[in-house]
Amino acid sequence: MAYRMATVYLHVTKRSPMTGGRFFCTIHTANSPGKSTGGEEWYDTMTTFKLVATAAMGLEKPVADEVRALGYEPNVENGKIYFEGDETAIARTNLWLRVADRVKIVAGEFKAYTFDDLFEGVKSIPWEDYLPADAEFPVSGKSVKSQLGSVRDCQAITKKAIVERLNGAYGRRGILPETGALFKIEVSMLKDVATLTIDTSGAGLHKRGYRVGQGDAPLKETLAAALVQLTRWSPDRPFHDPFCGSGTLAIEAAMIGQNLAPGYNREFVSEQWPWMSASAWEDVRAHADSVADYDVELDITGTDIDHRMIKIAEDNAAEAGFADLIRFKQMQAADFTSNKENGVMASNPPYGERIGEVEEVEQVIRGLGQVMKQYPTWSVYMLSSMENFEELYGRQATKKRKLFNGFIRTDYYQFWGQKKRD
After folding, report:
1. Contact, 326 vs 250, CB < 8 A?
2. Is residue 46 within 8 Å of residue 23, measured between CB atoms?
3. Which residue in 31, 209, 255, 417 has the fewest CB atoms around it within 10 Å?
4. Quick one: pLDDT at residue 14?
5. What is the 3-state secondary structure (H, E, C) of 269-308?
C-alpha cells in the first residue's frame, strides 16, 4: 500500500498528502484528513509513495534504466517497474520517461479470494489521503488467474468500498458528487492478489503532442524511443531511418539528441490534484528546459518510398520543433548513400503481412542488405516479424531482442558495424 516516509523534528504519527506537503504537529484521523486537532505550527517534510511505471512486454529493462537514471531504485516485474518517490518523482518520471506507458501510485495490495475480501481490503485503504470529497474516480479493472474472475463485479465492489470510505472520512452520506479532479483507479487481480492503483499520467505517455498525422500502422512513440535507445546512438553519429513512415523514429532520436523531456509539451492528470503542488511541476519543467541542448548539431535523416508519408513526417517534425533539423526525402531504401562513418540505421520495415506483399518486402530487405555491405562501419537495427529476416538481409544478427509491436511479436535484429577509429 502507499506509505509515508518523513524527516521531521517533532513526534508525528500520521500524515496525508492532502495537507499540501506539510505536517501538523498533531495526529490526523481518518475522519478528518489533513485537518488539525490542536497546534497550528507547520513543518516542511516529504511524502514517499510506492510508484509503478508500466511498460510493454520486453521493454522493462529500458524503463528500469530510465528510472535509475532519474535517481530512483527500480524493482522490475513483468510489465511493471516499481520505485519509491515523492510528488517531485511523480512529476519527473511523467515528464522524462520515454519508454514507459504510464506512472501510477500503488494505493494498496492484498489477498482477495472472495468479494468480501475485496470490499474490506479496498475500504481499509486511506483513500481520503489521495481523493478530495469531490473527486471524480472511475474504476477500471482486470483479472488474471484469480478466483474473482468477473471484472465488472470487481469494479463495482471497489467503487462501493471507496464511496463508503470517503463518506466516512468526509462526514457525508449517499452518492458523492464527483465534480472535481480526476483520479483514475484500477483494481487488478493477479493470482488472487488485488492491487489498487491511481493513474498519475492521464493520456498514455506515448502522447507527446507532436503527431498531427500518421499512416496505417504507426510506430508507438514509446517503442520508437526504446528502439533508438537500444542502438546506443549518440548525437555525434549520423542516424537514418530508411522506412520512416510518419517520422516517429527520427523525431524520437532528435528529442534524445537534444536531451528534450518527452512530456515537456503536454499536460498530466495529476497536475490538477489539489495536493500536488504547482511548484513541483514548474520546477521540473524549468529544470528540463535548462538541460535541453537546443544547439547540438544532429545528422538525422528519414526516407520512405511513399511521398504521402514524407509529407506527414515533415508535418510531425515541424510540430515537434524539428522542421529544419530532420531531413526527409522520398526514396527507396536500397538507394541509400552516405559519406559518413559509424552511422546508425534503425527502422521498422514492412512486415509483409498482407496478401501479395511478402515477396515484395523480401526483395526490399535483400536490396537493403546488399547496399549496407558498402558501409561496414554502420550499425543496422531492424524491427521485424519475419523469421527469415537474417537470411534475406544476408547476414547473421549480432544480437536479437524479442519485442512486441502492439500485439505483433517481433525481433529487433542488431547488426553491429565495424568501429572505425580516427
Report:
1. yes
2. no
3. 31
4. 33
5. HHHHCCCCCHHHHHHHHHHHHHHCCCCCCCCEEEEECCHH
Residues 106, 50 contacting (CB under 8 angstroms): yes
Number of H helices, E strands in the chain: 10, 16
CB 191 within 8 A of CB 144: yes
The one-character DSSP state at 98 is: S
**What is the Cα–Cα distance from 409 to 405, expressed in whole angstroms?**
7
Q: Give percent of the chain above pLDDT 70.
A: 87
Q: Are 258 and 296 in contact (CB under 8 A)?
A: yes
Distance (Å) of CA 330 to CA 193, 253, 336, 362, 371: 52, 20, 11, 20, 17
| pLDDT band at residue 140 under the 50/70/90 scheme | very high
CA dist 230 and 381 (Å) reads: 9
Q: What per-residue confidence (pLDDT) applies to 354?
A: 62
Q: Packing angle between helix 278-291 and helix 87-96, nearest 10 degrees?
A: 40
Residue 362 has a pLDDT of 95
pLDDT at residue number 390: 98
pLDDT at 11: 27
Rounded-to-integer distance, Cα 335 and Cα 151, Å: 53
What residues have CB less than 8 Å from 11, skipping those under 6 apart?
none
C-alpha–C-alpha distance, residues 377 and 147, integer Å: 56
In the chain, CATH 3.30.2130.30 sits at 17-199
Residue 157 phi, psi dihedral angles, 5° rounding: -70, -40
Domain with CATH 3.40.50.150 in the chain: 221-266+296-415
DSSP label at 69? H
In the beta sheet, which residues pair with residue 106?
Answer: 197
> Distance between CA atoms of 5 and 168, rounded to whole angstroms?
25
Instruction: State the cell numbers at 366.
Output: 535483400
Judge whether residue 42 has pLDDT over 50: no
Q: How far apart are alpha carbons 44 and 23 in whole angstroms?
A: 7
- Give residue 36's pLDDT: 25
CA distance 343 to 345: 7
To 5 degrees, how large is the angle CA 259–CA 261–CA 262? 115
CATH of 17-199, one of 3.30.2130.30, 3.30.70.20, 3.20.20.450, 3.90.79.10: 3.30.2130.30
Fold of 221-266+296-415: Rossmann fold (3.40.50)
Q: C-alpha angle 51/57/59, rounded to 5°?
A: 70
